[in-house]
Write a sequence for this structure.
């Protein structure tokens, strides 16, 4: 009887670039009433992203987000209430309401969702002046693997098995971990493997 076991080693996953989508009122100016916390010198023209210019990180990780409330001429506006909200599986944000400081800046901590893929954070002042930040969260480090196929097979001595031996590698949240290196070895009995080392594909599966 031949038994095959697998183990995986961590391989750094690629970062995925992030798109920033800017939005504001018609013509670049807010056309609906804004929400000032106190008297402000000018109406809001837009909310712009200050940091980060490009957001990228792993699932469930917390990143700082800073936006700036500006007038039509680009001057920072203090004392405006900025509301932060997430959409879809975009995780959580804290605090959800921030008053812009003397430079017009407002900051929050965004914890990305646990599922790999696109996350969205929306910063808004009033109903039509918004800043949308879109991030692609990638899987965390490989944490576990499970057998997909190939167990309990039998065949003629020297003949290849009909079904490949395959395992799926995931992170701690169940996201597929592509690019992880999986090592296969014959633990007992006799036989040979078509590949002793295999990299996981986009679904986290490696086979031999």
């Amino acid at each position: 009887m031949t038994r095959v076991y697998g183990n995986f080693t961590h391989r750094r996953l690629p970062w995925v670039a992030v798109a920033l989508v800017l939005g504001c009122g018609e013509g670049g100016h807010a056309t609906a009433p804004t929400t000032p916390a106190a008297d402000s010198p000018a109406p809001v023209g837009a909310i712009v992203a200050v940091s980060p210019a490009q957001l990228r990180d792993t699932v469930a990780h917390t990143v700082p987000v800073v936006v700036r409330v500006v007038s039509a001429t680009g001057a920072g506006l203090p004392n405006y209430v900025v509301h932060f909200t997430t959409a879809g599986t975009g995780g959580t944000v804290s605090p959800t309401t921030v008053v812009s400081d003397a430079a017009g800046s407002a900051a929050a901590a965004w914890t990305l969702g646990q599922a790999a893929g696109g996350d969205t954070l929306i910063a808004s002042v009033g109903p039509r002046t918004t800043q949308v930040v879109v991030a692609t969260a990638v899987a965390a480090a490989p944490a576990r693997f499970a057998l997909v196929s190939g167990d309990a097979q039998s065949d003629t001595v020297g003949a290849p098995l009909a079904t490949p031996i395959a395992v799926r590698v995931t992170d701690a949240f169940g996201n597929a971990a592509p690019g992880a290196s999986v090592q296969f070895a014959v633990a007992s009995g006799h036989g040979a493997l078509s590949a002793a080392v295999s990299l996981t594909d986009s679904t986290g599966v490696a086979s031999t």
Q: What stands out?
A: The chain is about 0% helix and 45% strand.
